[in-house]
Design brief:
Chain lengths: 547, 736
C-alpha cells in the first residue's frame, strides 16, 4: 500500500520522483511527489570547476572545528572592527597630519595593500572579516554570533531593475568612491578627518542597506569593493565552500544552506554551494557549512587561476566589471602623468570646476579605456562564427545535451545573454583578470613601501613615545622610488604572464572551436594582454613611484 | 498538465493578460526548488548558466515557485489563472420547524465534480495535504475524480481516513485543506476539496475494509467510541486485533452522533462507521463508563489501551444563579432537542428543560462557537426564539463565519462583546438574565466588562455552550494530558520548503496563518503515537483538549498504527521474534560536537544492526516525535561538558532537548556519554532525568576518549551486546 505507486498516472507525472515523507509507524504521512530535478550531465556541467576531493581543507579536524564554530566569523571581524572604530575616532580626534595620524596611515598605507594581497591569493577573504558588513550584519541578526531566527529590518528584495546588472552597481559605487577620495584628497594621503567621514559613510550606508534589504544585499550589489574583490578574486586559490556530493544536494528536500538551518543562516550572499563555480559571490562566511544537516559542504582550495579559466558560465557583469575596473586603474596611473594635469586644468577652467579631478575627464577617461577594450573585443568577435551566438559547446571538452537545446528558446537577461560580440568579449575579459589585478596591486605599492613604517611611530605617538614626525621610522622608506618602479613593473609582468597562461586555456576551450579564423582571435587576445601589460608598465615608469 | 492550464486559461475574465515569469538570473542559483514543485512543468533548467528558464505559456500563475524559492529569484507577473470555484448550494426548507434535512447540498453532477476537479493543479508538493490534519492524499483523489474513477478516489481516501463522509461535512476546510491549497495561498479561491471528498463518499460504493494480519493476537481496549475510537478500532480490526470499546452512553459514536445535529451531519452518515465496526466483530460495551481507578485493570487485561474518551464535560459559567432550574448544558439540550425533532414532539414536552406550558420559549445561549450555533439552530427548529451571546469581540472570536451566517438566516440573534453577569429566578426557575457589554482590544487579551452597561433580558431557558473539557476523573490517568497545542518551536524544514508559510494570512483562510496552525496540529498528532504510560495511548480531545473530528480521527489511526508496529504485550516487554512479522527499530540519537560521540553511535549501529534489527543514527536536533514513536529502543549518546572538574554536566542542547521530551511511556532506553577527563555523575543524572520522563533505562556507559578522539573499541562491543543481550550481531533487543 504505497501511495507513490498510485501517482504514476498519465504523462504529467513523467520525470517526477515520487517520494513521500514516510511516517514513524510505517504509514506514509504526507504524500509528496516532487518532480525529478534536472540532473542530466550535472557532473559534466561542474566537472571543470569542481575542486578535487583531495583539496578539501575541512577534512582536517581542526579546520572543521573552527569552521563549525559559530564564533568563527565574529573573531575574524573583531580585530578589524576595533581598528576601524579606531580609525573613525582617531581620524576625527587625532592629529591632522595624515602621515602621523593612525587613521589615514593604516587605511591607506597598510589596509589597502593587504586587501589586494588577500584578494589575489584567497579571493573574498576580506569579505569574511569585513567590519562594515560585519557590523551591519550583527545588527540585522541581533546577535554577534548566535543563529537567530528573525532578522531585524524590512527584509526587502533588491529591485530587480538594478539587480539584473549584477556586479556593475558595485563598480559604479567604486567609481564614485574613488572620485570622492581623489576630490577630497582623502587617500592622498591627505585628510584624517575625511578618512573618518568616509569610513562612517560606508558604515552608515551598510547599516541602512542591511536594515532595508534582505541578507547581504549590500555586499552583493552595492559595496564598492565587491566587484573588484569578486572578479580579481577569481585568480585566487580559494575555491570556497562547495558541495561534496552533488546528488545529495539536488535531491535535498530542505536546502538549509539557502533557507537557513539549526546551526547556520541561509547564505547571506545568495550563493548555493550546490552550484557555485567560483567564489565570485561567496563571502566565505561558512554559514552553509554550518547549516547543512548532511554535512555536504566542504571548504576547498584550488589551483590559482582556476575560477577564471574553468567556469562554463561567463557572466557579462563580470566581464564589463573587469573592463571598467581596468579603465579606472589606468586613470589612476594616467593622472600621475603631467599630460593629465594639463588636460584636467584646462577642463576645470572651461567648466569652472574648482579642482582635480574633473568629473568629466575622470569618467571620460575610464569610459574611453573601457570602450577601447570593448572595441578590441568587437574586432576580435568578427573572427568568430555567427552561430557561435548559440554557444554550442559541443566542440569543447564539455559536451552536454541541454545547453544547445535550451539556449535557442530562452530569453536571457543581461548577465547571460548571448551574442557574437559576447562570444569573444566575455572570454577575453576573463583572461585579462590577472593583469588588471596586478595593476591594482602595483598601484598600491608606493604607498606601502614609502609609508608603512610610519605606523610604528604613529602608534607610539598615542603614548607620546617614538618621537613622532622626527622618528627614524617615520621618515624611513622600505624601498627607494626606482626600486619601487622596478617592483611595480615586475608585478605587472607576473600578472601579464598569468594572463597569457590563462588566455591560452580560455582560447582553446571557448574561442578556437567557434572561430572562423582562430589565428585572428589568438592575435587579438594575446595582443590585448601584451598591450595592457606593456602599457601599464610604461605608465609606471612615467609615474616615478608616485602615490 | 497542458490540458488543465488551457482549460483554466480560457474561462475567467482577466485571462487575456499575459503571463510573464521573470527569473532574476543574477541571483537564481539553479537549486531547482521551484522546478521540482511547479505543477505545470513550466520551469526548466538552462544547463549552461545553471539557472531556471521558463515557458510562460505553461504557467498558470499559482505562485508556488515564488513561495518556495529560497533566494526570491523568481517573480510571476500576470493573472492567477483559475476557473471560478463551484458554489456551495444550500437547501432552503419552506419552514425549519422540526426540519432535520441536511442543509449543505452536495455537488449536483459528475460533470460539475469533474469541472471542479479540473481546478486542482495536482501540485508536486501539495500544501493542501499538509493543511489536512489527516494528510489525505488530496491531489490523488482529485486526480481520480478527474479521470472518472470514483472507486479509486474512494480507495485513496480510505488509506488515510475512515471518516471521509463525516469529515467532508464537518471540517472547517477554510483553515485546513482548502485554506492551504495553492490557490488560496496565491490569494484566490481554492479547490472545493471538501465538496469533492463528499461527492466521492456519496457516489462511490462504501468500501469493505482491506484486511491484513499484522495485529493478529493483539487485544486492545479503547475507551470512547467517538471519531478517535472509531479510527483506532478500524485500523486495529483491519489487521486482525481483538478490539473492545467502552462507551459510557447508550449509543456509540460520541460527538458525531449526539454533538452534531442532523442538518449538518445526517444520522445515517454518523452511524455508518459503527454499523461496520460491529459487523467486523468489534466488541462494543455501551453504558460502560470507565473511571480512573479502572484504568490499571484494563492495562492488566489488554495488551494495549487507547484512551479516546474525548472532552465531554460541559464548561459551566460560574455566575450567580447558575444552578437555578432552567439552566442546562449544551449536551443535554442537543441530545434531547435532536430527539424531539426526530419524534415531531414539541419543546415543551422535553422534560429536563422544564418548559411545560411554554409554547415558544425565549432561549439564551451562552457562546457563539460551533456548539452554541448547533444549540441555537436546534432550538430554532423547535420553535424557540434564540439569542446567543459571546463575550469576545467578533474580530477575535474563533467562530466560523459560514456557520454564523447560516444561523442568522434561520433567525438566531447573535451578539458579540456581551457577557452574562447573573441570573435571577422566580420560584427557583430562571427568569431574568443580567447581561453586560465587554470590550476586547486584542486576541491575546481577555475581554473586559464595561461598567454601567448592564441590561436585563427575560428568559425561559439558558443553555451554556461555551465548550467542553476532559472529565477530571479520567484526566488523572492521562499523565499530563490534555496538553496545549502550540506553534512549533522548531519548524520542520520540509514544511518551510513546501511554501505553506509563505502567505501568513490567506484571505480564504479568514486571514489565519494556515502554515502555523497546520504544523502545530501535526506536532500534537505526532504525540498521539507515543504512549503516555507503558502500553497506554491517549488520543483525540483527551490528548489535546477540545478540537476537531478529523484530528481525533487522525490520532486514533496513528495510535493504532503505533500499536500495530510495536506490538506491546500485557505479559511484559515483548521480545524480537515473538511475532514473525516484527523487526526491532532502534534509534540512536546523538549530540556530538567534535564528532567522537557520533562515531561511537555509528559503531554501535554497525554492531547491533541485523536482519531483525533496524538501526537509525540521527543527530539530536533532527529528531521529531515521529522518530521517537518509530523506535522500539532509544539509545541516547551525548558528551560531557565542563571545566575538567567544575560545572561538569550535559551539554546545553542535550539539556534543552530533554526538556522538550513528552512522557516516553516505558520506552526501553540505553545511554552513553563520551568524556575526556572525568564524567562525574553525568551518566547517572541523565538516566534519572530520562526515567523521570518514563523511559526504562537498560544499559549505560561512559566512554573515555582522548582529546584526539580515539576510543577503546572493546567498550563499545560490551555496550552493544548489553543492549542486544548477545555477543555479536545480535537479534535480540528489548523493546516495549
Ligand atoms: C567545551 C568542552 C568542554 C569539555 N569539558 C569536559 C569536562 O569537563 N570533563 C570531561 O571529562 N570532558 C570534557 N570535554 C571533553 C569531551 O567530553 C570529549 O572530548 C567528548 O568525547 C567530545 O565528544 P564529541 O567529539 O562527540 O563532541 C570537554 C570538551 C569540550 C569541547
Ligand atoms: S548543501 Fe546541504 S542543505 Fe544545502 S542543498 Fe546540499 S545537502 Fe541540502
Ligand atoms: S556560499 Fe556559504 S560560505 Fe559562501 S557566502 Fe554563502 S553561506 Fe557563506
Ligand atoms: S506560478 Fe505556478 S505554474 Fe507558474 S511557473 Fe510558478 S509554479 Fe509554475
Ligand atoms: S528556486 Fe529560486 S534560486 Fe532555486 S532554481 Fe528556482 S528561481 Fe532559481
Ligand atoms: S478530512 Fe477535512 S481537512 Fe482533510 S481533506 Fe477532508 S475536508 Fe479537508
Ligand atoms: S488542492 Fe490545491 S494545493 Fe492541493 S494539489 Fe490541488 S491545487 Fe494543489
Amino acid at each position: 500500500m504505497t501511495i507513490t505507486e498510485a501517482s504514476q498516472v498519465g504523462d504529467e507525472v513523467k520525470g517526477e520522483s515520487p517520494s513521500t515523507i514516510s511516517g514513524a509507524t510505517g504509514s506514509q504521512r504526507v504524500a509528496v511527489r516532487l518532480r525529478k530535478p534536472y540532473e542530466t550531465d550535472v557532473e559534466q556541467r561542474f566537472r571543470l570547476t569542481d575542486p578535487s576531493k583531495g583539496l578539501e581543507l575541512s577534512k582536517n579536524k581542526h579546520v572543521r572545528r573552527v569552521l563549525k564554530n559559530r564564533k568563527f566569523q565574529f573573531f575574524l571581524i573583531l580585530p578589524n572592527q576595533i581598528v576601524f572604530w579606531g580609525v573613525i575616532f582617531l581620524g576625527i580626534l587625532g592629529t591632522v597630519n595624515p602621515d602621523l595620524n593612525f587613521a589615514t596611515a593604516i587605511t591607506w598605507f597598510l589596509w589597502f595593500a593587504l586587501v589586494f594581497v588577500m584578494m589575489v591569493v584567497v579571493g573574498r577573504a576580506w569579505c569574511v572579516m569585513c567590519p562594515f558588513g560585519g557590523f551591519a550584519e550583527w545588527i540585522q541578526r541581533k546577535s554577534f554570533w548566535n543563529r537567530t531566527q528573525k532578522a531585524l529590518g524590512l527584509g526587502r528584495k533588491f529591485p530587480e531593475s538594478i539587480a539584473k546588472y549584477g556586479l556593475i552597481t558595485s563598480v559604479g559605487t567604486f567609481l564614485l568612491l574613488t572620485w570622492l577620495e581623489e576630490f577630497f584628497n582623502i587617500a592622498g594621503p591627505g585628510n584624517p578627518e575625511a578618512t573618518s567621514i568616509m569610513v562612517i559613510g560606508i558604515v552608515i550606508s551598510a547599516v541602512t542597506f542591511f536594515m532595508v534589504f534582505e541578507r547581504r544585499t549590500f555586499c552583493r550589489y552595492v559595496c564598492p569593493l565587491s566587484a573588484l574583490i569578486g572578479s580579481v578574486g577569481a585568480a585566487g586559490t580559494a575555491a570556497g565552500f562547495r558541495t561534496k556530493d552533488r546528488d545529495k544536494c539536488l535531491n535535498c528536500k530542505t536546502k538549509e544552506c539557502m533557507r537557513g538551518g539549526d546551526e547556520g543562516f541561509g547564505c547571506p550572499w545568495y550563493t548555493w554551494p550546490g552550484s557555485a563555480d567560483s567564489n565570485l559571490t561567496c563571502g566565505l562566511c561558512s554559514e552553509c557549512y554550518k547549516a547543512c544537516p548532511s554535512d555536504n559542504v566542504g571548504f576547498f582550495i584550488q589551483k590559482p587561476l582556476t575560477s577564471m579559466i574553468a567556469p562554463l558560465r561567463r557572466r557579462a557583469d563580470v566581464a564589463w566589471s573587469v573592463l571598467l575596473l581596468w579603465g579606472l586603474v589606468v586613470f589612476q596611473q594616467f593622472n600621475a602623468v603631467s599630460l593629465y594635469g594639463t588636460i584636467d586644468n584646462w577642463l576645470n577652467t572651461k567648466m569652472h570646476f574648482p579642482q582635480y579631478p574633473n568629473p568629466v575627464d575622470y569618467i571620460g577617461i575610464i569610459f574611453l579605456v573601457t570602450l577601447i577594450m570593448a572595441g578590441i573585443a568587437w574586432v576580435g568577435s568578427k573572427a568568430m562564427k555567427k552561430d557561435a551566438v548559440q554557444l554550442d559547446l559541443s566542440g569543447s571538452p564539455v559536451n552536454f545535451a541541454g545547453a544547445k537545446a535550451s539556449s535557442k528558446t530562452i530569453k536571457h537577461s543581461f548577465v547571460d545573454k548571448k551574442s557574437q560580440f559576447r562570444s569573444f568579449m566575455l572570454p577575453l575579459s576573463y583572461g585579462l583578470i590577472p593583469v588588471v589585478g596586478a595593476d591594482y596591486f602595483a598601484r598600491q605599492l608606493p604607498k606601502f613601501f614609502l609609508n608603512v613604517l610610519k605606523l610604528v611611530p604613529d602608534v607610539g605617538a598615542w603614548f607620546g613615545i617614538g618621537g613622532g614626525t622626527n622618528a627614524k621610522l617615520f621618515n624611513a622608506e622600505i624601498l627607494s622610488g626606482n626600486q619601487i618602479v622596478a617592483v611595480q613593473v615586475g608585478v605587472i609582468i607576473v600578472g601579464m604572464l598569468a594572463s597569457l597562461y590563462a588566455m591560452r586555456k580560455i582560447i582553446k576551450r571557448d574561442i578556437v572551436p567557434f572561430a572562423t579564423s582562430p589565428f585572428a582571435t589568438k592575435l587579438v587576445a594575446y595582443g590585448t594582454v601584451l598591450a595592457c601589460g606593456v602599457g601599464a608598465s610604461w605608465l609606471y615608469v612615467m609615474m616615478h613611484a608616485a602615490t | 498538465m497542458t490540458l488543465i492550464s488551457e482549460k483554466t486559461k480560457s474561462s475567467e475574465g482577466d485571462q487575456m493578460e499575459k503571463m510573464d515569469i521573470h527569473i532574476f538570473s543574477d541571483r537564481c542559483a539553479g537549486c531547482q526548488e521551484c522546478v521540482v514543485r511547479c505543477p505545470t512543468n513550466a520551469l526548466k533548467m538552462d544547463s549552461l548558466s545553471w539557472t531556471v528558464v521558463a515557458e510562460d505559456e505553461l504557467c498558470v500563475g499559482c505562485r508556488q515557485c515564488e513561495r518556495t524559492c529560497p533566494f526570491t529569484a523568481i517573480k510571476i507577473n500576470g493573472p492567477v489563472m483559475v476557473d471560478v470555484r463551484i458554489k456551495q448550494e444550500h437547501f432552503k426548507p419552506m419552514s425549519i420547524d422540526h426540519n432535520a434535512d441536511e442543509l449543505r447540498l452536495p455537488i449536483k453532477s459528475f460533470e460539475d465534480a469533474k469541472k471542479e476537479a479540473m481546478r486542482c493543479l495536482d501540485c508536486p508538493d501539495p500544501t493542501c495535504l499538509r493543511g489536512c490534519p489527516a494528510h489525505n492524499d488530496i491531489p490523488s483523489f482529485i486526480r481520480a475524480v478527474r479521470e472518472g474513477n470514483l472507486q479509486e478516489a474512494h480507495s485513496v481516501l480510505s488509506r488515510t481516513s475512515v471518516l471521509p463522509d463525516v469529515c467532508s461535512r464537518v471540517c472547517d476546510q477554510a483553515t485546513q485543506c482548502e485554506g492551504s491549497c495553492s490557490w488560496s495561498l496565491a490569494g484566490k479561491q481554492p479547490v472545493a476539496i471538501g465538496l469533492l471528498e463528499r461527492f466521492i463518499t456519496e457516489n462511490a460504493d462504501f468500501l469493505p475494509l482491506e484486511k491484513g494480519n499484522k495485529a493478529t493476537g493483539l487485544e486492545v481496549a479503547i475507551i470512547g467510541s467517538g471519531p478517535a475510537g472509531i479510527a483506532a478500532a478500524t485500523e486495529l480490526v483491519k489487521q486482525g486485533a481483538k478490539v473492545t470499546v467502552f462507551e459510557k452512553d447508550s449509543t456509540p459514536g460520541g460527538l458525531i452522533t449526539w454533538g452534531i445535529p442532523d442538518f449538518t451531519l445526517p444520522h445515517e452518515v454518523a452511524k455508518r462507521p459503527w454499523d461496520r465496526l460491529i459487523n467486523e466483530g468489534v466488541n462494543l460495551k455501551v453504558n460502560t463508563e470507565i473511571k480512573e481507578a479502572e484504568v490499571n485493570d484494563l492495562l492488566g487485561n489488554y495488551d494495549a489501551l487507547i484512551i479516546a474518551c474525548g472532552a465531554s464535560q460541559p464548561i459551566k459559567l460560574p455566575v450567580e444563579g447558575g444552578d437555578l432550574k432552567g439552566v442546562v448544558d449544551a449536551t443535554t439540550f442537543l441530545k434531547n432537542g435532536q430527539e424531539a425533532i426526530n419524534n415531531g414532539s414539541s419543546i415543551s414536552e422535553i422534560e429536563v428543560l422544564g418548559l411545560k406550558g411554554v409554547s415558544s420559549p425565549h432561549i439564551l445561549v451562552l457562546g457563539a462557537g460551533n456548539t452554541a450555533m448547533d444549540v441555537a439552530r436546534t432550538a430554532r427548529r423547535l420553535g424557540a426564539s434564540v439569542r446567543a451571546i459571546d463575550w469576545m469581540d467578533q474580530k477575535f472570536a474563533p467562530v466560523r463565519p459560514d456557520e454564523l451566517a447560516e444561523a442568522k438566516s434561520e433567525g438566531v440573534e447573535i451578539t458579540f462583546s456581551s457577557t452574562l453577569v447573573s441570573l435571577t429566578g422566580n420560584n427557583g426557575r430562571v427568569s431574568t438574565a443580567k447581561i453586560a457589554k465587554t470590550t476586547q482590544t486584542s486576541a491575546k487579551e481577555l475581554p473586559k466588562v464595561q461598567s454601567g452597561s448592564t441590561s436585563d433580558e427575560k428568559v425561559d431557558l439558558v443553555v451554556m455552550a461555551m465548550g467542553y473539557r476532559v472529565d477530571p476523573d479520567i484526566q488523572k490517568a492521562l499523565n499530563g494530558a490534555p496538553i496545549r497545542k502550540k506553534p512549533a518551536e522548531k519548524v520542520d524544514r520540509r514544511w518551510i520548503a513546501s511554501g505553506i508559510f509563505a502567505n501568513p494570512a490567506p484571505e480564504f483562510a479568514r486571514g489565519q496563518n494556515v502554515g502555523v496552525i497546520s504544523l502545530s496540529r501535526e506536532i500534537a498528532n505526532q504525540l498521539s503515537m507515543i504512549p503516555r504510560r507503558p502500553r497506554m495511548w491517549v488520543v483525540g480531545d483527551a490528548l489535546i483538549g477540545p478540537a476537531t473530528v478529523v484530528e481525533a480521527m487522525a490520532h486514533g489511526r496513528d495510535a493504532a498504527r503505533a500499536i500495530i508496529t510495536h506490538k506491546p504485550s500485557k505479559s511484559g516487554g515483548s521480545e524480537v521474534g515473538l511475532y514473525a512479522t516484527k523487526t526491532a527499530k532502534v534509534l540512536i540519537a546523538v549530540e556530538s560536537r567534535g564528532g567522537t560521540t557520533l562515531k561511537i553511535g555509528e559503531a554501535i549501529q554497525k554492531r547491533i544492526s541485523s536482519s531483525d534489527v533496524e538501526v537509525r543514527v540521527q543527530k539530536l536536533n533532527t529528531i521529531t516525535m515521529e522518530d521517537i514513536a518509530w523506535a522500539d529502543h532509544l539509545i541516547l549518546g551525548t558528551w560531557v561538558e565542563g571545566f575538567v572538574v567544575a560545572k561538569v554536566g550535559l551539554p546545553k542542547f542535550t539539556k534543552a532537548w530533554l526538556k522538550t521530551l513528552p512522557p516516553l511511556g516505558g520506552l526501553p532506553t540505553s545511554i552513553y556519554v563520551t568524556y575526556s577527563f572525568n564524567p562525574k555523575d553525568v551518566l547517572g543524572n541523565l538516566a534519572k532525568e530520562l526515567e523521570g520522563k518514563g523511559a526504562k533505562i537498560q544499559s549505560k556507559e561512559a566512554f573515555k576518549t582522548t582529546l584526539g578522539g580515539t576510543v577503546d573499541l572493546s567498550g563499545i562491543d560490551n555496550f552493544a551486546s548489553s543492549i542486544t543481550g548477545q555477543k555479536k550481531g545480535a537479534a535480540k533487543v528489548t523493546t516495549r
